[in-house]
Design a protein that fits this description.
With 120 residues, the chain is an all-alpha fold. Helices cover 88% and strands 0% of the residues.
Amino acid sequence: MTDDERPPTTAGALADWRAAEQAAAVARRGRLAADAAVTAAAEALEAAKATADAAKASQAAANLAEASATKTAAAARAVAQATIADAADAESESAMADVAEAAAHDRYRDAVKRATDSQG
């Protein structure tokens, strides 16, 4: 059996598991940050819409304020859409990291069982 065909050692499997756990934690934090950014972007969009409504109520500055608010809303919408995409990516990365962590954990348990069986 070559080195490439050998199952990982307990230490190696544990290291893999820990690395996968760490990657999963980082991915989860990224997902949380993306979720917070989505919320902030949605609030910015609501604020931009409120600004647009207020601009419509004024007479003298209505045209300039409405154009500014419309641009702000468009920018907030672009940020919101990009952030939603980032959140989806973060969710996907988090799920993939969780799968990798579970697989690494299984390899670790298998390595522990092999080590225990070889001693008994």
